[in-house]
Design goal:
By secondary structure, the chain is of the alpha/beta class. The chain is built from 6 helices and 6 strands. Strands 3-2-4-1-5-6 form a 6-stranded mixed sheet, with helices on both faces. Strand 2, helix 2 and strand 3 form a beta-alpha-beta unit. Helix 1 crosses helix 2 and helix 3 packs across helix 4.
Length: 180
């Protein structure tokens, strides 16, 4: 069995309308969300042996802040293909991963990560967590999927089990949507 973690980048800053999308940093709420999620990922107990991430600034900052908060630096494999990738592209990238890695954590963007969950987890009513993703997979959300495969190349649709889903607001309500 393989384990796949999906970690969406934390809340980014839209203050500079001239900035390229790729270069947008995290805002204050995003920095807090990345830190609290880093501690949760550490405490959740999965020993991630492989980390792949989009090199977009908001992903890089999410990884840096989460790792610092967790006290567990990991070597990051930056892959530009994750940046704004479709589910199909993300699945292809996962199929290329070294089989020596049993637990891979991917840091990226929506809608790709959310769509990957929809593609891998069956929509048969058996997963309340999948139903929650259908409502929203917000910034800094973290999901864990169990894959009934021995080799990453065997990754196929509708075979995964979504076993964990947490959002920053689940850990600190102040990190939830800003209501007016």
């Amino acid at each position: 069995m393989k384990t796949l973690g999906l970690f969406r980048h934390a809340k980014s800053d839209w203050a500079d309308p001239r900035a390229r999308d790729f270069d947008r940093p995290l805002n204050t709420r995003g920095r807090a969300g990345a830190a609290i999620m880093g501690r949760h990922i550490r405490d959740h107990g999965i020993a991630w042996d492989h980390l792949i991430s989009s090199p977009a600034v908001r992903c890089a900052e999410t990884v840096e802040i989460a790792a610092e908060a967790a006290g567990r630096p990991l070597a990051v494999n930056w892959d530009r293909r994750i940046y704004l990738a479709s589910s199909a592209t993300l699945a292809d990238l996962l199929r290329e991963q070294d089989d020596a890695f049993a637990a891979t954590l991917m840091v990226g963007h929506n809608p790709g990560l959310e769509d990957l969950i929809f593609d891998l987890v069956p929509d048969d009513g058996s997963s309340p967590l999948r139903d929650s993703v259908e409502v929203k997979f917000p910034t800094a959300a973290y999901a864990v999927l169990e894959l009934p495969i021995r080799r990453w190349a065997e990754l196929t649709d509708k075979t995964a089990k979504l076993v964990h889903l947490i959002r920053p607001r689940d850990l600190d309500p102040a990190l939830g949507p800003q209501l007016i």
